[in-house]
C-alpha cells in the first residue's frame, strides 16, 4: 500500500489569498495534521501534503497502488513536472475555492463594517474550505459541546477504525474517511462509545443509517450550492420534480438528521455544501455579537433557533452573500490561540479547557446515572415479579392444602 510521494509542485497563491497555517486549524476541518512545516491529510482518495511560502502553495500527493485517477478536464494545464494523470492541482483549487478573490471580499467587508476593518489586517488569507459534505456532517455532529482537539481525535479514530487505508508516509498509516455504510454495522455504536464518543455515537450511527438506507443516493450532495460543486466530482443529477436547492432549504433538511441543530446545520451548509451565507452561531460568535454588535445578553446558556436566526440574519445583512466567510475571520480572531495573530501555536488552541472538560464529564456522568437508574428500576421490577410469583405459589399451596383437609 505504500508508495513514495510525488515531487513537490507549486501553485502561485499569496498569503493574503490563502494562509494554510490559519485556515487548516481554525475549526473547519479536523483531519489535517502538521509535521514540521508540512500539513498532511487524505483527500478524495489520495494522501496530500502541503507547505507554503509568501508566493506559492507547494503540494505533492500519493495514490493507492491500484488507483487510476483520470484527469477531469481534457486539456487542463499541468504544473511543470506533474504527472498528467494527477488532478491534485485542480482538486486543491476547488478545495480552497481559489476562484474567489479573497482580497476583494476583505475590502468589501472592511468598507461595510468598522469592526471587521479593525480585526482583519492580522488575519488575512482565511478561506472557507470546500469539504466533502458527509465528512463535514459527521465531524460537526462530533463538535457538540466539544473542542477542536477532541473533535480531531474523534475524526482520526473514525478513519483508523472504519476508513479504508490509502497508504503510509514516513511510516505512518493514512486512512480515508469512512462511508455511511461503514458506520451502520450493529456493533459500531457500542464501539464508538468505548472509544470516547459518548452520546454522539448514537447520533453518528442514526445519521449514517438515514443517509445509507432512508435517503436516495446523492441526497446530501443535492443540497449543495450549484455554484460550488465538490472538488473533483460532479453534482448528482436532480430529479425532474426536485426544487432548486437554496441555503434555507439545505438548512431545514439538515435539521431533520439525528444530532443536527441549527449551529451544526449551518456548519455543514457553509463548509460542506458551499452556502457562503450560512453563519454558524456558537458561544464564540455570540460573544462577538454581544461585545461588538450590541446584541443584548440572554440568561440561557443555549441558543434557540430564533436567536440563531436573528444573529445570522444580522450578519447576512451586514456582510452579504459570503457572510459565513467574514464570520470565520472574526471567529478566528476571537480564539485565544490566535490572540497573538496567525503565528500563534496551534497547540495552545487545542488545549482542553476546564469548561469543556466539565461539560463533557457531566454529560458522561448523566448518561451513566440514567443507565444506573434504568438498571435499578429494572432490577426492582424483576424482584417484584419474583416476589409476586412466590406469593402466588404460596397462596396456591395453602388453598390446595385447605381443600385436602
From TrEMBL:
Enzyme Commission code: 4.2.99.18
Annotated transmembrane regions: none
GO molecular function, one term: class I DNA-(apurinic or apyrimidinic site) endonuclease activity
Catalytic activity from the UniProt record: 2'-deoxyribonucleotide-(2'-deoxyribose 5'-phosphate)-2'-deoxyribonucleotide-DNA = a 3'-end 2'-deoxyribonucleotide-(2,3-dehydro-2,3-deoxyribose 5'-phosphate)-DNA + a 5'-end 5'-phospho-2'-deoxyribonucleoside-DNA + H(+)
Family stated for the protein in its record: Belongs to the type-1 OGG1 family.
Root EC class: lyase
Residue span, HhH-GPD domain: 142-328
Name of the protein: DNA-(apurinic or apyrimidinic site) lyase
